[in-house]
Design a protein that fits this description.
The complex is a heterodimer of chains A (327) and B (409).
Chain A lengths: L3 E6 L5 H12 L5 E6 L5 H6 L9 E5 L10 E6 L2 H13 L2 H9 L2 H7 L4 H14 L13 E5 L3 H8 L1 H5 L7 H13 L4 E7 L3 H16 L4 E9 L6 H9 L4 H10 L8 H27 L5 E5 L7 H13 L4
Parallel strand pairs in A: 1-5, 1-6, 2-4, 2-5, 6-7, 7-8
Antiparallel strand pairs in A: 3-4
Helix pairs in contact in A: 1-14, 3-5, 3-6, 6-9, 7-10, 11-13
Chain B lengths: L28 H6 L5 E5 L6 H14 L3 E6 L4 H6 L6 E6 L10 E6 L2 H12 L2 H9 L1 H9 L3 H20 L15 E5 L8 H14 L1 H11 L7 H14 L1 H15 L2 H16 L3 E7 L3 H16 L4 E9 L9 H14 L4 H29 L5 E5 L8 H11 L4
Parallel strand pairs in B: 1-5, 1-6, 2-4, 2-5, 6-7, 7-8
Antiparallel strand pairs in B: 3-4
Classes of the chains: A alpha/beta (327), B alpha/beta (409).
């Protein structure tokens, strides 16, 4: 049973949208889901149209109901490294005075903005804590699953490979052993890293590279979510006819009239020209689709929505993910 | 191809604080490229908007219009890099083959090697012995290869170097392929920053880190006076030793002490580059896609550039959906398609109508987004580049984007 869904993707592919839809899809039958973001962009707040999220778990939506109409709840958390460090110190070291001193001397700022690797460890550390709640965090909600809107594909392996990032910096000590414990979860079947892509050459290439990197780091690849898929309104043979310019113009014109449309001059030519451009793009998408097919991971499709993404569209995407077996 | 325009427009600063009451004009890319006073073009914007391709296309177009151009790219797609003759990281510009030099211009390209650039800065600022100590320190290695701001900072550092060595002329030695006056235009692609502000802040962040209270404290014991070892600092070092182990603190102390010596040089260079960006010969182009997130980022850029008195030349709205070829309203098309589908679920004409409706809706949504941006930033001239069907990975593709930018098509 996957308890941590990590959603990554190249910039512009809709990774935050997919992470949000996945959280809605998972939140059914009374389950509690936590949706986390770590990059300070407040993307989740924008998508759900709520105030900017604090460093505290907030209930932001009810999930997509299951067939019996039972819903779960999506909570959201915006993780920033400074708050995570202070919370960590309070939780594990009861650093009252010293904790404040750390802040006063700029150590917190130093550790979270500069000390390399430490920042990622703090962010992933909080995610880990939310997945494996223990008695130190009293009264906290126990989640059935956590969805992480993660850094982009180019950085994801480095981000999750925390013990590697710390290697050479902290060779011993509690941080080292804690990062090793985190790696055990990240490498287990309880974690799945999903990669969001669109059917274009560069994002698909980056997805393939990302999968190779994840696998060589022993991190479990979940699936590839193919986002913004163009409408499939024309059958393959019609696409071929459009490309070859052999589509029956007269028939199209007759059908337009039969549909009650006024066939103004240029309408048929315009529609055929648009269809040719579409067919050209579809052919390129099909090439990339074949590349995705060879990646040997489950794929899930989400359509390009002409009207953009609002809350309603998000539920629509969630139900499509669930129908395809994700969530 | 037209030659350099005789009626050059004077470029003025634009942004929220620019002159009000004008509507967004069209960005005249060719005038910008042809204006000999334009020495640096910085393309910025969020990830995934085609910034790298736009930078390369601008550089190629400028070269073929007679400028001597070098383009600094950060992370180009493999095939694009190959077609420009920069198959791997290289820290010096290489000439691009296949550029039309009839107008007297030329194009070179280079891909930023972040770590090497950083190493070179250290080597140029510190004694060999000190430099060696810094280069071997685990903190330096991590900082120079993975610190989130390093790429941004090094891109700016490299820009400063290129400007010093190749535009103003300077340190390029006899054996080196380039020297003074090699280039008269530098086009810079910026890293896909997590936030709009990263690359402007990177030099500042690095120098404020080196200047920070904690770093000063770390240095204090090395400098002697024990009075700085306050009770508070003792608490900190104890806490850090407990959590991170003693070696961590020792490495950190060595690193900070070593870096302290190259410190002044770092800050000075960062400040120089920052001034270079503010100078009149620099033009910032914000690249965005017609998506809410990308345009929001673009708006931040516009505001931030204006706050920092950086010369913003305009917005490139990349990958816009192409205008539909027929004027049929989306609602009519959907209604017609519905009627046809009821009679024949496989109707081709119904498919054509649905595709048309989809395209109309995309274009309408993008127009709304653009109008909203324009309402908030009416002074920002904009160039709209329609999306090409395929990816760009050769000079012909770049030329095509260039001519779309120059509104030839």
């Amino acid at each position: 049973m996957v308890r941590l869904h990590v959603v990554t993707g190249k910039g512009g592919t809709g990774k935050s949208t997919v992470a949000s839809a996945l959280a809605l899809a998972l939140a059914r039958g009374g389950r509690n889901i936590l949706l986390c973001e770590v990059e300070g962009r407040q993307g989740i707040a924008r998508i759900f149209d709520v105030d900017p999220l604090p460093y505290a778990e907030r209930r932001i939506a009810t999930g997509l109901p299951d067939p019996d109409g039972r819903k779960g709840v999506v909570h959201a958390l915006h993780i920033d490294a400074e708050s995570a460090l202070l919370e960590y110190l309070a939780m594990y070291y009861r650093l009252g005075r010293a904790g404040r001193a750390l802040d006063r001397f700029g150590v917190i700022e130093f550790a979270t903005t500069i000390a390399p690797g430490v920042r990622d460890v703090l962010l992933t550390g909080k995610v880990y804590e939310a997945v494996q709640r223990n008695s130190r965090n009293k009264g906290a909600i126990e989640y059935d699953a956590v969805v992480l809107d993660a850094p982009p594909t180019g950085r994801i392996t480095q981000f999750l490979n925390v013990s590697n990032e710390l290697a050479g910096l902290a060779k011993v000590g509690p941080i080292k052993s804690q990062s090793d414990t985190m790696m055990t979860l990240f490498r287990s079947p309880q974690t799945a890293v999903h990669l969001v892509t669109v059917l274009e050459e560069m994002p698909v290439q980056e997805t393939a590279d990302g999968i190779t990197e994840l696998r060589s780091a022993g991190l479990p690849v979940g699936g590839v979510v193919v986002n913004q898929v163009r409408p499939q309104d024309l059958a393959d043979e019609d696409l071929a006819a459009v490309r070859a310019g052999t589509l029956d113009r007269v028939r199209v014109e007759d059908e337009l009239k039969a549909a009650g449309l006024e066939v103004e001059p240029g309408l048929v030519d315009g529609l055929l020209k648009e269809a040719r451009d579409h067919a050209e793009r579809r052919a390129l998408e099909d090439e990339q689709r074949a590349v995705v097919g060879r990646l040997d991971v489950p794929t899930y499709d989400l359509p390009r929505l002409a009207g953009g993404i609002d809350l309603g569209a998000l539920y629509e995407l969630a139900s499509m993910l669930r129908e395809q077996g994700l969530g | 191809m037209t030659t350099s325009s005789s009626t050059r427009r004077t470029r003025s600063r634009v942004g929220p604080e620019g002159p009000a009451g004008r509507h967004a004009s069209d960005l005249d890319v060719d005038s910008l490229l042809d204006d000999r006073r334009t020495g640096i073009i910085v393309c910025c914007g969020s990830g995934g908007v085609g910034k790298t391709t736009a930078s390369a296309a601008l550089a190629l177009r400028a070269a073929e219009r007679g400028r001597k151009v070098v383009v600094l790219t950060i992370d180009p797609a493999r095939r694009l890099a190959q077609s420009m003759g920069i198959p791997e990281l290289g820290n010096t510009p290489r000439p691009v083959v296949g550029v039309d030099q009839a107008a007297g211009g030329s194009l070179s390209a280079m891909m930023l090697d972040m770590k090497r650039t950083f190493d070179e800065v250290v080597l140029s600022q510190a004694s060999p012995e000190k430099a060696e100590q810094i280069l071997a320190n685990p903190f330096y290695i991590a900082l120079s290869s993975s610190f989130a701001g390093t790429q941004e900072y090094m891109a700016m550092e490299k820009l400063g170097q290129l400007h010093r060595d190749h535009v103003l002329g300077g340190t390029a030695g006899a054996g080196e392929p380039h020297g003074q006056g090699d280039f008269d235009l530098i086009v810079v692609d910026t890293p896909p920053s997590r936030s709009a502000l990263d690359f402007l802040d990177a030099p500042e962040r690095l120098s404020s880190f080196l200047d920070g209270r904690f770093v000063r404290l770390m240095l204090a014991p090395a400098r002697g006076p024990a009075r700085l070892m306050t009770a508070g600092f003792g608490l900190i070092t104890n806490a850090m030793t407990r959590i991170l182990g003693a070696q961590f603190l020792k490495d950190l102390q060595t690193f900070v002490a070593a870096l302290d010596t190259v410190f002044g040089g770092f800050r000075q260079r960062a400040q120089q580059t920052y001034s270079l960006l503010q100078a009149d010969g620099t033009a910032f182009l914000v690249v965005a896609a017609p998506e809410p997130d990308a345009l929001r980022e673009a708006a931040y850029f516009v505001e931030r550039l204006s706050d920092d008195a950086m010369p913003l030349a305009g917005l490139i709205l990349n990958r816009a959906s192409p205008e539909p070829d027929s004027a049929l309203p989306a609602e009519d098309a959907v209604a017609g398609a519905g009627r046809l589908r009821r009679q024949d679920p496989a109707s081709v004409t119904a498919g054509l109508l649905r595709l048309h409706a989809d395209q109309v809706r995309m274009v309408e949504r993008e127009r709304d987004l653009r109008n909203r941006f324009t309402a908030a930033h009416p002074q920002v001239p904009t160039a709209v580049v329609p999306a090409l069907a395929g990816d760009v990975h050769d000079l012909d593709g770049l030329r095509r984007i260039g001519s779309l930018l120059g509104r030839e098509e």
